[in-house]
Specification:
mainly alpha
Length: 343
């Protein structure tokens, strides 16, 4: 697949889409919280949001490929692994981990994905990242610790830590696949396929009893008012799932894995801001400092200098080759096969 040449306009669009995805993802916890308060299990909530997203994106996804699903079938390995790891796996692993370890520790491990990708690229290429990228990564990591505010409270259950690590792997895979979308598969189609397969997988797990599925269908408290249960479910499915994944994949294709993954840390900042606005959850001063560090780290990673392209070697001088002129194109007085030069 031929890569498009980077341009400032594409970079700005990528940053905007990445921030939009971070805001949508970050708001997801606040939106879905009323369902958990009314007795919904994590499995039921994830299944519901994936089902809503799959229904909403069905027509746009099929129109994007002109109702030809052969590109999805050709890239079925990537699509399947994306659905299992980056869509369903991340959310289930995270929800399961916070039942065993503190939420702050689980979040910190999950959002180590950009650093893990950076170290993996360093190990694979054996080429140290640019100094400005390392400084930006350190700032973002320090800011992440301050925003999340992990404490030593709570039992660090090994299984809980392992589940949080699975969530981190799923997040990392989300960014890797976003930069290697199968040929002929638009971002909206890849996201839709992930939702469909993820919902089917979770639904089957619920039917056979592997995954607890508990839900209530009454009214819930939603942003200070009473509303039907399906209102927060539809909102989290459309905004924090369908739109968030499509915007995120689009950002990755425009910016690349590294920049987009660090830009994804804005989700933590947006989650705090949304919780403060709608739930009245105060942001500590250290959290504000951490948010500034995360944003500063993202800027530094984005400012990574482009690799200098090697100067092309001069071509050896050679005599001009004769240009053959066809007999019917030759001007009067010119013999067939004579050389002709243009000025």
């Amino acid at each position: 697949m031929e890569r498009l040449i980077a341009s400032p306009r594409r970079g700005v669009l990528g940053v905007v889409m990445g921030l939009a995805a971070g805001l949508a993802f970050g708001a997801g916890g606040t939106i879905v919280k009323p369902l958990f308060s009314e007795g919904w299990s994590p499995g039921a909530a994830v299944f519901g949001r994936l089902l809503v997203a799959a229904v909403v994106l069905a027509i746009p996804a099929l129109v994007a490929v002109r109702f030809d699903v052969r590109p999805l079938l050709r890239g079925w390995r990537i699509v399947l692994s994306y659905a299992v790891l980056a869509v369903a796996g991340v959310q289930l692993a995270f929800y399961a981990s916070i039942e065993r370890i503190p939420v702050s520790i689980a979040l910190l491990i999950e959002y180590l994905a950009p650093v893990a990708l950076l170290l993996l690229a360093w190990a694979r290429t054996r080429r140290m990242p640019h100094r400005i990228v390392l400084i930006g990564a350190a700032l973002a990591l320090g800011g992440l610790v301050l925003v999340i505010g992990p404490t030593g409270s709570g039992t660090l259950d090994p299984l809980g830590l392992a589940l949080a690590a699975v969530a981190m792997i799923g997040v990392a895979f989300y960014y890797v696949v976003g930069d290697r979308v199968p040929e002929g598969v638009p971002p909206v189609t890849l996201a839709w396929a992930g939702f469909v397969i993820g919902a089917l997988t979770l639904g089957l797990a619920g039917l056979i009893g592997v995954l607890p599925m508990e839900a209530t269908f009454g009214e819930v408290d939603f942003f200070g008012m009473r509303s039907a249960w399906w209102v927060p479910l539809a909102t989290v499915g459309v905004v924090s799932t369908a739109f968030a994944y499509v915007a995120g994949i689009t950002s990755i294709t425009l910016l690349g894995t590294r920049v987009a993954s660090f830009l994804g840390l804005s989700e933590v900042v947006f989650a705090g801001v949304v919780g403060w606005i709608f739930l009245g959850e105060a942001i500590a001063p250290l959290g504000l400092v951490g948010a500034a560090l995360i944003l500063g780290g993202i800027v530094l990673v984005r400012l990574e200098p482009a690799a200098a392209s090697p100067t092309p070697e001069p071509l050896p001088a050679s005599d001009p080759e004769p240009v053959l002129v066809r007999e019917d194109d030759a001007p009067a007085g010119t013999e067939h096969g004579a050389s002709s030069s243009r000025t």
